[in-house]
């Protein structure tokens, strides 16, 4: 029998800094097509994993350095969720890993707006890993907004964690809204088209870098 305690022990032993569980029925507000059961019809639980983002990368003056760290975080979370799903499947459960970034199931080219298979930020909130800040990033009490997320959908019912209910942003704080060079934040959501115009840059060799992280770096809670 699969148990939440065993999953968390495995996650921490394999490099996760945070691990929480949300029952699938907490996702009733998910957009049509993006509920866990839309991906795995027999989903009963969502296991959310998080790894701390090295905070020093925000001080780098090279966009390539920050982009490298981000890409390594994606690779690490994808490997964690992949390996966890294999472990759980070997115990007789249906387990589907969710990409920590691309590919998208939804893309609006005109708005340059993408949605992942599952909103990992909202899944993280429902699994008790943090609360959403005005910069739209998930903020954890210990690690601030310096976390990257992954998830596994599971057919087994697990003991859930309570959703996080602490304060993300001071009531009077609007640093991220005021500092965004694109004016892409409104305190609730983000205009992805405006954000991408500044935050993703092409390199001379045909690659790309993440060239803006102001909303993450300016936040007083970026380190918890």
Can you offer a commentary on this structure?
This protein has 224 residues and is of the alpha+beta class. It is built from seven helices and ten strands. The chain has a four-stranded antiparallel beta sheet with strand order 1-2-8-3, with helices on both faces. The longest helix has 28 residues. The model has no long low-confidence stretch (mean pLDDT 95).
Task: Give a topology summary.
Blueprint: H1 4-13, E1 18-23, H2 36-39, E2 45-52, H3 63-90, E3 95-98, E4 106-108, E5 113-115, H4 120-126, E6 131-132, E7 138-139, E8 147-154, H5 175-179, H6 192-199, E9 200-202, E10 208-210, H7 214-217
Antiparallel strand pairs: 1-2, 2-8, 3-8, 4-5, 6-7, 9-10
Strand content: 15-25%
Q: What is the H/E order?
A: HEHEHEEEHEEEHHEEH
Structural class call reads alpha+beta
What is the global morphology? globular
Q: N-to-C terminal Cα separation, in Å?
A: 35 Å
Tags for this entry?
4-stranded antiparallel beta sheet; two-stranded antiparallel ribbon; 29% helix; 224 residues; single chain; 7 helices; 10 strands; alpha+beta
Can you describe this structure in just a few lines?
By secondary structure, the protein is α+β, with helices and mostly antiparallel strands. Helices cover 29% and strands 19% of the residues.
